Amino acid sequence: MAELNGRQRRYLRGLGNQTQATVYLGREGITASLTQALTEAFSQQELVKVRIERTCALDRREAAPRLAEAAQAHLVQVLGQTVLLYRPDAESPRLQLPD
Question: What is the CATH classification number for the domain harbouring 29?
């Protein structure tokens, strides 16, 4: 998976402003059920926002790369207690990223 450049990250951050959190990381941490929820969210859309709850034992800076790795996605942004992840659809990407 090729890395995102600055322009692509800016574009995705702009789209992420209107996105609501659909996956929540809680006390259990990154589990198989959370990974399944991420997979389901990515089947619906390519840009997913994850909310890290206060009960989570992981720090947001520690949890963000782990979430990206578990979801096989790009880490776009960590802002407050939310993490923005991007994973293009392998067959037909819906978002057109700038070059």
Answer: 3.30.110.60
- 35 is a domain residue: yes
Q: What is the span of the domain harbouring residue 40? A: 21-86
CB 48 within 8 A of CB 37: no
H helices within 1-99, ranges in order? 6-16, 32-44, 60-71
pLDDT surpasses 90 at 33: yes
Residue 12 in any domain: the answer is no
Phi, psi torsion values for 54, nearest 5 degrees:
-65, -25
| pLDDT tens profile 68-99 | 999 999 999 999 999 999 999 888 788 888 88
According to the model, what pLDDT value does residue 31 have? 94
Report how far residue 57's alpha carbon sits from residue 8's, in angstroms, rounded to the nearest whole number: 31
